[in-house]
Structures are given as structure tokens and as C-alpha cells.
Specification:
The complex is a heterodimer of chains A (about 350) and B (about 500). With about 350 residues, chain A is an all-alpha fold. Helices cover about 70% and strands about 0% of the residues of chain A. Chain A has a domain at about 60-300. Chain A is built from 14 helices and two strands, in the order H-H-H-H-H-H-E-E-H-H-H-H-H-H-H-H. In chain A, helix 3 (about 50-75) crosses helix 11 and helix 5 packs antiparallel against helix 10. In chain A, about 55% of the residues are buried. Chain B has three domains: about 5-240, Rossmann fold; about 245-335 and about 420-503, P-loop containing nucleotide triphosphate hydrolases (Rossmann fold, 3-Layer(aba) Sandwich), CATH 3.40.50; about 345-420, no CATH class. Chain B contains 17 helices and 24 strands. The chains are: A mainly alpha (about 350), B alpha/beta (about 500).
Chain lengths: ~350, ~500
């Protein structure tokens, strides 16, 4: 058992090391010191309570986004709609957060989170339902829904829900009420705890429940799932709804815990990072937590690295891309480690084109 | 003329974890038919793939026409006069026969394909060998037997001196198979040599000059038809004596369990696959459905098990109308289904043996309660299935993909038989599995019948149908040609019906 865990972890771990090594070469080529740069990166992400808070805050939406991709993977679907689902969750959570006042926190905060989650579930479920009923490929549909979500949230925050205080001209909502703001326990934001709980719940549902058994059956062998009496269409639709809900919770936590409002353009790109996280975690819901922490740490420490070592913060994007490259092309690492090829470890990206 | 047309000398080939060929030597002489006999996984395919240049041996040599050769790929083998007809045809369905035959070796005139020249050669070849065919027919319009003819002509067009045929009779009616054997015999008269891979003992005895039996990657016997018999060959293949025919008592049919009335079902392309089918299966009897594959068998099984909705007609199971019932409703009614394609429908390859053992009952007590899986119960159940159905596996926690075909099949049968069942739908229940497992599964199916289960057995193996059935329905072109009592059935009679011929 421990051997197989080791084998599972080996590839992402070596990918990270290789990414950092090549990153070091790039730092050298800028006439900077890799050791100074990497030290600054770690101090910037873990050095003090503020740094840890930053890392955990950065990691929170990444966990939710990673889960949104990983959960859909389990049913054999590729959810590229994390970005749109996150925006929808962020704007509706903010809407309930600023739009209602006078409620106690124990009611208001869960209500705001729930509003974001339900909106995201509808958004994701839309793609799953279209797939189940018409065969429309979820990759295409979720990409298109990303654009729809982007424009819808822009419009909401610029028109009916616009912040009209002072002479604000930015497309953003008013600040959410205190009763809808996610608190922080010391250096630990409560949103991060929610994300960890969501990851654990995903794992339990997938591994221990009949619903999870159905999801995995559909993902591994759709024909056998149908043979065994599983309603494949329902599983595809509901799995995408769960995925949409997870991504949307990431957006809700951003609005209620980090930004304090929804502002158009602030969360751009955040939803796509879920794909990186899910790949790095090899679609394991528990693996999403360390993967998100790693990426969160790099993002939290990037500005200190720039300040201390004079390295452009874009280097972090390059290192992330390299890690992703090595994870997606594990044959290089297998060769380095002289590992035997084992197809059971291979991650299947969706059901492929043309098959429905 | 050369003395050895094609030979493997001390060939060894190792795959990860399997010694596929272990010091194997065979020799084919001109004008002779060499039958290669062995169970699945015995190493037949590896050996012919080495002879055809698809694999390179780890040690040992390939000899073609008395010359040791180092084959770098199938092209190499083809240019040296080796032709191969694969079990799954390598044809382009929307193209014409002549185009398929010349594909890859097209005659040209001023840089353009010269189809007239090609057509002349094809017509001449087909006349010479008694392989008549319309060179301008589209391959997709041809019946399977004709498509096979195209494959053989493809090899002859390239001047093959050796033909390797991988399970060539699996898709044919008995009469078509007999005709093919006749053609092969004629071909050898021109000095051509043939390697014939099969698991049908009867055919081996009918056609082969030399017989080589493989087991676990080694040659375990070399013989000739005059020196052996069906049971002798079976014993060589398995390594112990086997019962080729299970004994069965006379059936005692009870009430009607499955009743099908004027059922019409479409195939994937929306064409009518079953055209107004009506029949009944009673408790305690086995109704065998014989027929060449592709005459509606798949659609029939899928319609009964709820995987496909009939467009017209009525289906009743145990008195309840379930014409468009879902697979789950039908399973709940006491219907067990051994699917035709175990990899596609029967197991989830990456799931463990335990997970597969509850594939269609995970949602019921005791395997889960209120949506939570009970792992201990599932593991215990899997162990029971493994023990009772002799599934050879190191544990119930290994993935099903690590099991051999026969053991996967026993796992499926065990899963399906672990409940009280009223109706068993068994589609190709012993396809591609070893003789020992076949014997075992046949016995279990008969046991179910004797317990009062109604059994619908669909099989392309006529011997299986004849050996197990109490009544036999012959399916041709989506219609039942006739239903005959098994006691009055013989190969000849059923073979004619399978070809759509009634008197």
C-alpha cells in the first residue's frame, strides 16, 4: 500500500523538483542568484503570519477550482468551465452579501455561500445536462459558458448591482455586510478550512458512497455503467453540477473573505488554475490540497522574490508551466526514475473527442 | 522448390511478466497446411506476429524459403511472400473490392492508378482459385464471408506463397466454413503453404496436414490428424483430460418466463435489426439462439436486458410487461445477463475484483445502506464468489484487468448467479476462454436450468448451442427461421437455416 502511494506521489514530486531546477537555470540566465530567489520565495510565502495567511488565501480558490476539475474527471468529463462557475459563484455570493442586512452572521454568511453554490451548480449542471441529453461536448459548452458568465457578471456589477457610493466608476458591487464576511482565525482564513473540508467530503463521497461508485463507474467504463443499471445521463448532469458548485464556492470565498465584494476583472484566470491543480494532484481530491498549497505558496512569495532577487514574477508562471508539462508527460520522469510503465496510473483526460 | 517455406527456429519472446514464446520451433513445407492449436494466451498470436514481422524475437530465427531473415516489419514479410488474414479484417468498408485489394500496391500508368489493369488481375486471380467476387462491389455491402475472400485475394495479389489465417472460420456458417476449407485445400495444390490458427478441433482434423499444439508458450505436441482425435487434441491443449460435452438430463419446462411478441428493434444506424420476432422461454429450459453473428443477436440481447428500446412489440418477463424497462428494473425482476463483450459491458477493468463483484448490486442491501458502501460486506461477498466460482486471482483487491479472460468470465458468471434468478440471458458466454473454464461455465448454466431458471443462450459457436440447448431458434437477418427441438437438430440442418435457406 505505502509502495503504491509512493509511486503515485513520485511523479508530481519529481515534476516539482525538475520545474524548480529549470527555473534556477532561468534565474541564473538573468544574472541573479537562484538560492536568494528561492529563499525569498519561501520566506514570502511562509516567513511570518502575514505570509502564511497570504499563502492560505491564495490556495483556497485553487483547492475549490482543483476539486471542480478533479470531480468531473472522475465521471470521465473535462470541466474547463471553472472560470465561469467561479465568477457566477462570486457575484451571487456578493449579491446576497451586500443585498440583505439585519441578519445574524450564522444565517447571513451560510446564506451568501449557499447562493453562490447553488448558482454555480446550475451553471455547471447546464453543461452536464446538455451533454446527457444532446451529446454536446462538455469542453465546448463549458468554454462558451465561461464567456457568458464573464459578460453576465460584468453587466451585473456595472448595472443593477453597481456600487454607487462616492463617485465610483468601477464595475463592482458594494462591500458585503460584516455579517456575511468570512472571518479569519489567527493566520488561518475560515475559507481555507472550508476548502479542506470540501476536499475531504469529495474524497468520502467518491470512495465510500454508492453515488461515488456510480460516478467512478461512468468515468471508467460508460458501457459497463449502463449495463449495471446506472443512469449515465443523470450521473453526467449531476457530476457537472457538483463540479460547478465547487468552483463557485471558490469564487464565493473570494468575494466574502478576500475582496469583500465582487469586482469585474479581479478574478480573471483564477478559475483556469484549477486544471493545473487537478493535474498535479492526479485528480485525487486529497492530493488537491498539497498541490494548491504549493502553487499558492509560489504566488504568495512571488513579489518578495522580485523585490529581493530582482527576478521577474512571471518566472513563477514559467515554473508552474514546467511542472504541469512534466506531470502531463510523465514518460520523461518514468525514464528518469526507471519506473515501469503502468497504465493504471495514467490519468484519462475526459472521454475524448467524437465519442459520446 | 524450397524445402522450408516458413519456419520459426527456437523462437523465444518475453513480454513483461509473461514468457509468450519459449523456444518454439515450427516448420511449414510447400503445399501443406499447418494447424496451430492452443488456448487463448498459449502464444499462437505472438508466434504468427513474429513470423509476420510485427514483433522481433528475443532469440531464435525466422526462416523464409530456406533463408534466415531478419524481419523489420510486416512490409518485409509481405515482400518475401507472406500474406496474413487477420481475425479482424483490415479493409476500408466504403471502398470497392478492387481498390481494397490493390491498396498499398497500386498499379500505375503515368502516375495515375490504373484500376483497369488491377481489375483484370483480380478477376483472373479469383477465377483461378475459385474465389469469385464482384470487383466493383463496395466492401461494406458484402457479407462477412465475402469480405474474408477479399482479404485472401489481397494476399494472393501480392504473390504470397504463404498464407497465415487467424481464426478464419469464427465468422462463417458451417457451410461457408466448409467451402473455405475446400478453397484452402485447392490453394495448396499450387504449392502454397498455409498456417491455420484455430481453436476448433473439428476443423483441425478436417483440414490440417500437420498439427502443432502450443500451451503456455511452448510446443507441447506435434501430430497429424490420422494419429489423434478431438479428445486427444483437447487433452494436449489443456494438459489434462477434459469433457468436451457436458452431460445433461432431459429438461422439465415450467411456466413461460420470457415472452416476446412481434418485437421490432433497430440497430445503431437506425436500420431494422429484429423484424417482428416472437418466441417464449420457459422455466427450466434452455433456448439456444443460433446464427451467424450480425443477424440481430446483439440487438435481441440488448432489448431483453433493457440496454436498447424496441420500436414495436411487447416483451413480458414473468408476466410483467417490461418492453421499455430500464436495465435496473429488469435486473430487479430476476434477470441475470452475461454480456457478449465482457471488456465492454461485463467488467470495469480498473475496478478491483471486489468492486466488480457488486457492479450491478452495489446499491442494494447488504452491500450498501442509505447510500454508504459497506466495504467489509463487499469484500466478503467477493471472496465467496471467487471461492465458489473458482476465479483464479491473488486477492479480491487486485484490478480485474489483471485477470485472464476465463477468470474474468467466471467472475461475471459468479456475480450474476449470486442471486435467485428467474431468467438468464447468456450471450457468447464462453467466447475466447480456455477449455477448462468453458466446461465449468457450461456446467453452471445447466445447473441454473435444473434449478428452474429460464435460459436464453445466444452463441456463435454451434457446438455450444447443440451441446446445451433444449430448443434451438435460428436467427437470420433479424428473423427466426425456425425453432427446432434439440433432439432433432443436426449441424447440416441448422447450417442451412443459418444461411437463410428453408425447404
Amino acid at each position: 500500500m505505502s509502495r503504491s502511494i509512493l509511486r503515485t506521489v513520485a511523479i508530481p514530486l519529481v515534476a516539482v523538483v525538475l520545474g524548480l531546477l529549470i527555473g534556477a537555470v532561468l534565474i541564473l540566465s538573468q544574472n541573479a542568484s537562484p538560492s536568494t530567489a528561492y529563499t525569498a520565495l519561501v520566506v514570502g510565502g511562509l516567513g511570518d503570519a502575514d505570509a502564511v495567511l497570504r499563502t492560505l488565501q491564495k490556495a483556497t480558490p485553487l483547492i475549490f477550482g482543483g476539486l471542480a476539475v478533479a470531480f468531473a474527471f472522475k465521471a470521465g468529463m473535462f470541466n474547463i468551465g471553472g472560470q465561469g462557475q467561479l465568477l457566477i459563484g462570486a457575484v451571487f455570493a456578493a449579491g446576497v452579501g451586500f443585498g440583505i442586512d439585519g441578519l445574524p452572521m450564522v444565517v447571513h454568511l451560510p446564506l451568501a455561500l449557499l447562493a453562490g453554490a447553488v448558482a454555480g451548480a446550475i451553471w455547471g449542471g447546464l453543461a452536464g445536462t446538455l451533454k446527457a441529453t444532446t451529446g454536446a461536448h462538455e469542453v465546448i459548452v463549458t468554454i462558451m459558458l465561461n464567456f457568458v458568465a464573464g459578460n453576465l457578471t460584468d453587466w451585473l456589477s456595472a448595472n443593477p448591482w453597481k456600487d454607487n457610493s462616492g463617485n465610483n466608476i468601477v464595475a463592482r458591487t458594494p462591500l458585503v455586510e460584516d455579517s456575511a464576511t468570512i472571518p479569519t482565525l489567527g493566520a488561518v482564513p475560515v475559507g481555507f478550512l472550508l476548502a479542506v473540508a470540501a476536499a475531504a467530503t469529495c474524497w468520502l463521497v467518491l470512495e465510500r458512497t454508492t453515488y461515488g461508485f456510480e460516478v467512478r463507474s461512468v468515468g471508467h467504463n460508460r458501457n459497463a455503467a449502463q449495463y449495471s443499471g446506472i443512469r449515465v445521463g443523470w450521473i453526467m448532469a449531476s457530476t457537472m453540477a457538483v463540479a460547478g458548485m465547487l468552483a463557485a464556492l471558490g469564487g464565493a470565498v473570494e468575494s466574502l473573505g478576500v475582496d469583500g465584494r465582487f469586482e469585474a476583472g479581479v478574478n480573471v484566470g483564477l478559475g483556469f488554475e484549477g486544471i493545473t491543480i487537478a493535474l498535479l494532484a492526479r485528480a485525487n481530491p486529497l492530493g488537491v490540497i498539497p498541490a494548491a498549497l504549493l502553487v499558492g505558496l509560489m504566488e504568495a512569495g512571488a513579489s518578495r522574490m522580485q523585490f529581493k532577487a530582482g527576478v521577474a514574477p512571471e518566472l513563477i508562471d514559467v515554473i508552474q508551466a514546467l511542472i504541469l508539462f512534466f506531470v502531463a508527460a510523465p514518460i520523461i520522469i518514468r525514464w528518469l526514475l526507471r519506473m515501469r510503465h503502468d497504465t493504471s496510473e495514467q490519468l484519462q483526460l475526459g472521454a475524448g473527442w467524437g465519442k459520446s | 522448390m524450397s524445402e522450408t517455406l516458413l519456419a520459426a527456429q527456437n523462437v523465444t519472446k518475453q513480454f513483461p511478466g509473461v514468457l509468450a514464446n519459449d523456444d518454439v520451433s515450427i516448420r511449414l513445407r510447400p503445399g501443406r497446411i499447418l494447424a496451430l492449436l492452443g488456448e487463448n494466451g498459449a502464444g499462437k498470436s505472438t508466434l504468427v506476429n513474429i513470423l509476420f514481422g510485427m514483433y522481433r524475437p528475443d532469440s531464435g530465427q525466422v526462416v523464409i524459403k530456406d533463408e534466415t531473415v531478419d524481419l523489420h516489419g510486416p512490409d518485409d514479410a509481405i515482400s518475401r511472400g507472406i500474406g496474413m488474414v487477420h481475425q479482424h479484417f483490415q479493409l476500408v468498408p466504403p471502398m470497392r473490392v478492387v481498390e481494397n485489394i490493390v491498396l498499398g500496391d497500386e498499379p500505375t500508368k503515368r502516375g495515375l492508378v490504373d484500376l483497369d489493369e488491377a481489375r483484370n488481375r483480380v478477376v483472373e486471380l479469383s477465377r483461378r482459385y475459385g474465389l469469385e467476387i464482384d470487383p466493383d462491389a463496395l466492401v461494406e455491402d458484402l457479407p462477412v464471408g465475402m469480405q474474408q475472400r477479399v482479404e485472401i485475394l489481397k494476399a494472393l495479389y501480392r504473390n504470397a506463397d504463404v498464407l497465415i489465417l487467424d481464426e478464419p472460420t469464427g465468422v462463417l456458417t458451417p457451410q461457408e466454413a466448409d467451402h473455405l476449407l475446400g478453397v484452402l485445400r485447392e490453394l495448396t495444390e499450387t504449392g502454397l503453404g498455409i498456417v491455420f490458427i484455430t481453436h476448433k478441433l473439428r476443423e483441425v482434423l478436417a483440414i490440417a496436414d500437420d498439427i502443432v499444439v502450443l500451451r503456455n508458450g511452448r510446443v507441447v505436441g506435434e501430430t497429424t490428424p490420422s494419429q489423434t482425435s478431438e479428445s486427444g487434441l483437447a487433452e494436449m491443449m489443456v494438459g489434462r483430460s477434459v469433457m468436451l460435452q457436458v452431460e445433461k438430463s432431459i429438461s422439465d419446462p415450467g411456466d413461460v418466463v420470457l415472452k416476446i411478441d412481434e418485437l421490432e428493434v433497430n440497430d445503431d444506424r437506425g436500420q431494422i435489426a429484429l423484424d417482428g420476432l416472437s418466441f417464449e422461454v420457459r422455466a427450466g429450459e434452455i433456448l439456444g439462439v443460433a446464427g451467424v453473428e450480425g443477424n440481430g443477436q446483439r440487438e435481441l440481447v440488448e432489448a431483453i436486458t433493457g440496454l436498447r428500446n424496441p420500436s414495436v412489440g411487447v416483451m413480458q418477463i414473468d408476466g410483467e410487461e417490461l418492453t421499455s424497462g430500464s436495465p435496473r428494473q429488469i435486473t430487479k425482476k430476476g434477470v441475470a445477463h452475461i454480456p457478449e463483450d465482457r471488456e465492454k459491458h461485463g467488467v470495469v477493468a480498473v475496478y478491483t475484483v471486489a468492486e466488480n463483484s457488486v457492479l450491478n448490486r452495489y446499491h442494494r442491501r447488504p452491500f450498501s445502506i442509505r447510500g454508504i458502501l459497506r466495504r467489509d460486506v463487499i469484500l466478503g461477498h467477493a471472496q465467496d464468489v471467487v471461492d465458489e466460482f473458482d476465479v483464479r486471482t491473488p486477492s479480491v483487491s487486485v484490478p480485474a484487468s489483471s485477470l485472464s479472460g476465463g477468470n474474468k468470465q467466471k467472475l461475471i458468471v459468479g456475480r450474476e448467479f449470486s442471486d435467485e434468478i428467474k431468467l438468464l440471458v447468456a450471450a457468447q458466454p464462453t467466447r475466447g476462454i480456455d477449455i477448462g473454464a468453458i466446461e465449468f461455465i457450461h456446467r453452471r448454466i445447466l445447473e441454473q436450468r435444473d434449478k428452474g431458471t429460464a435460459v436464453l443462450l445466444v452463441s456463435a459457436e454451434l457446438d455450444e448451442i447443440l451441446g446445451l440447448s433444449d430448443r434451438i431458434a435460428v436467427l437470420y437477418d433479424g428473423k427466426i427461421m425456425d425453432v427446432i427441438d434439440a433432439r432433432d437438430a443436426d449441424r447440416e440442418k441448422i447450417g442451412l437455416l443459418m444461411a437463410g435457406i428453408t425447404d
